[in-house]
Design a protein that fits this description.
3-stranded antiparallel sheet; 35% helix; disordered N terminus
């Protein structure tokens, strides 16, 4: 039987009203707990909840502080199979900080840039749904106790990658909360609301596990919810891959809805200062990676109801954005998944970063070169010549050597396959079990065969997942080819969905066409920051063509190109990455400072810059000289 969740906002709002009395996630009670009923009666936001975070807890670090965030093991659950909402939130915040920022001693966080200050306050969360969507996205607003009512500031953000709703806390929260701004988040229709097809359970509003039908869930696919007694393992459905909404097409609208929810939350949190409107409240959008792409898509939109300017400025770091003249993520990710392991064996690219990753690449590189040669995708009599040819082909399609070297991480961690599997399903709007290349997600046994997930595994998905398997106990299930290159034909199938013919390829290319960006609204300040060594979303395929397109349309977009910066600040915890690369977050924070000063009338927008950073070298702490921050 099908297990759809609420088909109309009226149904969902009715449930939100029923649940509002028990909406706290275990934090202390608050007088404005009835916000759920207030908003649900008049809007599309459902299952609203309010929690307070003081007295050993806070908004920015869940009470962990910098030392707790640096801990190598996550916060524990008293009962691993039944964690509380408070425990899940703390662990999700720990994981999302560590997945985005380099917090290692010597890396400069909390000293040269960034903040993990204790910020007490309240959180307002809900499910939201854009018109026409099958599934909701999560929105969450943090209102600090010391909200600056004189400035009335909201920072709105979207999670990077496919992360859950806290996926941009190290970006937007770290800048906005200590300044007295409210911060609004959305998971933009991706996130970690996984659904267990074998048990019929998904993730409820507070992060805990619930059966479909017993509570509104962050994601419940239109698919059989439980096994039929035949013993078949159906696995795990993932919202980004299986919502059938192609959420990326609506990322801008997700951001705008999060900003709208922020105004309603502020009305409730600050009744003496209400009403909060887009006319009297500053809204700055910021995001990195997919979140950067989302805020650039939001820059295209008016407020949906009038010609009002709902958004005051945008800062986008290393954005995944598909603009005229560039290349789509699906195109270059499937190309890299096939060719990069072989190309990285070319001595011209040596030495690759971080020896363990180089070893992982080498382990599959020889076999990949042979697979490519036998299928006519590279030329050369031996592996050395094949690697040179694969390198040449990637250079010819726009990959710089700097991006290829940094891309060793994506090849070593099998990120290209993970991205391609998820996005092929998302762009094609495929339900679970319908992947055109036969991929599924599931818990895996020691032989990489699907098995049923355990209670403790399932309970941790929302806090521990990244929104894109493998990870958090959920893997990619496929029928492998024989060793030594078991993933080659799966990757070849994924590539053919871009370059080939047939219904599957047509569906994927149609989905990609739906995410093409247009220019930002005229007069909107936009700053784009990108690392020249980005090996996951190379600037030549994304930010450079976006800036060119926007400027051709007469928009004043400012562009910072940061030398020696790659995509993952979190990888700078690895010694060789720390020696080679600088973090990107300091430049995102600096751009926010300058945009904010510009809106105050105290400074001009930052000028374009190619920032000549200096790698710090092995074992050395980061200093301001290494960052070479622009002074204009």
């Amino acid at each position: 039987m099908n297990m759809p969740i609420f088909r109309t906002f009226a149904q969902a709002s009715a449930l939100a009203l029923a649940l509002s009395a028990c909406a706290s996630t275990g934090a202390s009670s608050d007088p404005d707990q009835n916000m759920a009923a207030t908003i649900a009666a008049t809007s599309s936001f459902t299952d609203m909840r309010t929690t307070t975070h003081r007295d050993g807890d806070d908004l920015l670090t869940a009470g962990l502080g910098l030392d707790g965030l640096r801990a190598m093991t996550p916060p524990t659950f008293a009962d691993p199979a039944h964690p509380t909402a408070v425990e899940l939130r703390r662990r999700a915040i720990w994981g999302n900080w560590r997945g985005i920022a380099d917090l290692a001693p010597g890396g400069g966080y909390g000293e040269l840039f960034g903040s993990t200050a204790r910020v007490p306050g309240r959180e307002y969360s809900a499910f939201a749904r854009v018109d026409g969507a099958r599934q909701p996205h999560r929105v969450l607003v943090q209102v600090p106790d010391d909200f600056d009512a004189g400035k009335r500031c909201v920072v709105v953000t979207a999670s990077s990658g496919s992360r859950g709703v806290y996926g941009s806390i190290a970006v937007a929260g770290a800048w906005g909360l200590p300044k007295g701004c409210a911060v609004a988040y959305t998971d933009k229709g991706a996130g970690t609301d996984y659904f267990d097809l074998d048990s019929g359970q998904g993730v409820s509003a507070d992060g805990t596990i619930a059966f479909a039908g017993a509570a509104e869930l962050g994601f419940a696919p239109d698919a059989p919810a439980t096994g039929s007694g035949d013993g078949q393992v159906r696995g795990v459905a993932v919202k980004h891959a299986h919502s059938q909404d192609n959420p990326e097409a609506d990322w801008g609208r997700h951001v705008r809805q999060a900003a709208q929810f922020a105004l309603q939350a502020l009305d409730q949190a600050r009744p003496d200062d209400a009403p909060f409107t887009f006319d009297d409240t500053r809204v700055i959008a910021v995001g990195i990676s997919n979140g950067g792409g989302a805020v650039l898509r939001a820059a295209e939109l008016d407020d949906g109801d009038s010609d009002a300017d709902w958004l005051d400025a945008v800062v986008a770091g290393e954005p995944n954005i598909d603009a005229e003249g560039g290349r789509s993520l699906y195109d270059f990710a499937t190309e890299a998944g096939l060719l990069m392991p072989c190309a990285l064996l070319d001595p011209a690219l040596a030495p690759l970063p971080q020896p363990p990753l180089a070893a992982q690449v080498a382990a599959i590189g020889l076999a990949r070169c042979a697979s490519l040669r036998s299928n006519g995708l590279v030329e050369g009599a031996d592996a050395g010549a094949q690697a040179v040819d694969a390198h040449r082909r990637l250079n010819a399609s726009g990959w710089s050597d700097e991006a290829l070297r940094a891309g060793a991480a994506s090849a070593g961690f099998d990120l290209w396959r993970a991205i391609a599997v998820t996005y092929a399903s998302a762009y094609g709007r495929h339900a679970p079990g319908e992947h055109p290349c036969g991929f599924d997600f599931a818990a895996l046994d020691g032989n990489f065969a699907p098995r049923r997930a355990g209670d403790a595994e399932r309970a941790a998905w929302w806090a521990d997942g990244s929104g894109i398997p493998p990870g958090a106990g959920v893997g990619i299930a496929e029928t492998p080819n024989a060793a030594p290159d078991p993933h080659f034909f799966g990757l070849r199938c994924l590539r053919d969905l871009w370059t080939g013919d047939g219904a599957g390829a047509e569906r994927v290319r149609k989905g990609v066409a739906e995410v093409r960006a247009s220019a930002p609204r005229a007069g909107l300040p936009v700053v784009v920051i990108h690392g020249t060594d980005d090996g996951l979303v190379p600037m030549a395929f994304s930010s450079q063509p976006y800036v060119a397109m926007a400027r051709a349309a007469g928009r004043d977009v400012r562009y910072w190109q940061v030398r020696h910066a790659q995509h993952f600040d979190a990888f700078l915890g690895l010694p060789d990455y720390a020696a080679r690369y600088v973090p990107l977050l300091p430049y995102v924070y600096a751009a926010l400072d300058r945009v904010d000063a510009h809106l105050d009338g105290n400074a001009a927008l930052p000028a374009d810059a190619v920032i000549a950073t200096m790698p710090r070298g092995p074992g050395k702490p980061l200093t301001p000289a290494h960052l070479a921050m622009p002074q204009e």
